[in-house]
Specification:
about 375 residues; alpha/beta; Rossmann fold; Dihydrodipicolinate Reductase, domain 2; 2 domains; 9-stranded mixed sheet; 6-stranded parallel sheet
Length: about 375
């Protein structure tokens, strides 16, 4: 098979990102398996037809069932709201389609467990969309840690902080309604995924979650906010390392504060997505008078960078992360083997979120349920 027929569900922000990535991936990475943009599904006939023309899909539909059942479609990319993920993924696996699903995997841990079980039964390729961890800098950080360059890791401090709801005068919307659309459902999966990718599984945690702005303007007055604005998680990893995560959509001044600092017995790492083409490395073995954090600008010597640019320090961007995801998905299909992050990794993130809510409600430490079968970590 030299081509794979792609069906895309969703034509919004993430739908466009995946469409652009699928159009570019073969040229960027010269993939052996080439995507064929077969069908896109959005909510109205006019909108679906317009997106098909804009994104380069051969056909369009308003019914995802039509897309999933189509014999010319080999793989389904789910970029629709999270309350649709399970209902689309299960029939897609049943129809013999490979599935890439945007984070979070379903509405929570109950749905993601069902999705994972269906994926594993199918024997098909399944991936969860965690794009930020794919920057060349974060891939380099994983390599440095795995190689033992900073010694035994003892501490992880991570955050995903943005300020798109910092202003209390912003009106209520779907993002302020329902637990799944809150800060823990929306932002936390990314930094939790980063913690798991860099540090391994979380054994136990203690969390505190809050709604900062409890009401927001709405037609005719105000409306109660029914989900959370920010949360913090103190945790202990299975490795024994300590950790802390902070997640907020009301962090004034922060636009893309996906950041982490990692301490080891022989060095340390720092990364901030707002400067995503740099990784800061400290080596404690450097001589006195030369010790300090060194800024490493990503370049062709680092993972996946050269396919985009030959100049060190010139940088990669957000869309490039999605193109790397598309490459991984195509390679997984071509090889017929799992490629990180699978549905198991998406489910593990949901397990941590579920434990965080349980801890918040009980006001104490809770264990994170172990996942049967380790997630794929290539």
């Amino acid at each position: 098979m030299s081509e794979v027929g792609i069906g895309l569900v969703g034509g919004g922000y993430m739908g466009k990102a995946h469409a652009v990535a699928l159009s570019a991936v073969a040229a960027v990475f010269d993939t052996a398996l080439r995507p064929r943009l077969e069908m896109i599904c959005t909510t109205t006939p006019e909108g679906a037809a317009a997106k098909a023309r804009q994104f380069g899909f051969a056909r369009s539909t308003v019914d995802w069932r039509t897309l999933v059942a189509d014999p010319r479609i080999d793989a389904v990319v789910i970029a629709s709201p999270q309350d649709t993920h399970k209902d689309i993924a299960l029939p897609a696996f049943a129809a013999g389609k490979h599935v890439f699903c945007e984070k979070p995997l379903g509405l929570g841990v109950v749905e993601s467990r069902v999705m994972l079980e269906a994926a594993q039964r199918s024997g098909l390729v399944h991936m969860t969309g965690f794009n930020y961890i794919r920057t060349p800098a974060s891939q380099l950080a994983r390599q440095i840690i795995a190689a033992g360059e900073i010694g035994e890791v003892t501490w992880f401090c991570g955050e995903h902080t943005e300020d798109f709801y910092a202003d209390p005068a912003l009106a209520a919307s779907r993002r302020t309604r329902g637990k799944a659309n809150g800060n823990m459902g929306d932002l936390s999966p990314h930094i939790i995924n980063a913690a798991l990718a860099l540090m391994g599984p979380i054994r136990s945690l203690c969390a505190d979650i809050e709604t900062v702005h409890r009401t927001r303007p709405a037609p005719g007055g105000t409306e109660a906010v029914t989900n959370d604005d920010q949360g913090q998680i103190m945790c202990r990893f299975v490795s024994g390392a300590m950790g802390h995560l902070f997640i907020s959509r009301v962090a004034t001044g922060r636009k893309m504060g996906y950041a982490y600092e990692i301490s080891g017995t022989e060095g340390a790492l720092r990364f901030d997505q707002e400067d995503q083409n740099a990784l800061w490395l400290y080596r404690s073995r450097d001589p006195q008078g030369r010790q300090g954090f060194t800024k490493i600008l990503t370049g062709p010597d680092h993972p996946d960078y050269q396919a985009f640019c030959l100049g060190p320090g010139h940088g990669t961007g957000y869309q490039d992360q999605i193109i790397i995801e598309a490459r991984d998905f195509l390679e997984a299909i071509a090889a017929g083997t799992p490629r990180w992050p699978t549905f198991a990794d998406g489910h593990m993130v949901n397990q941590v979120i579920d434990a965080a809510w349980a801890s918040h409600e009980r006001r104490g430490w809770v264990d994170v349920d172990p996942l049967e079968g380790e997630p794929h970590r290539s």
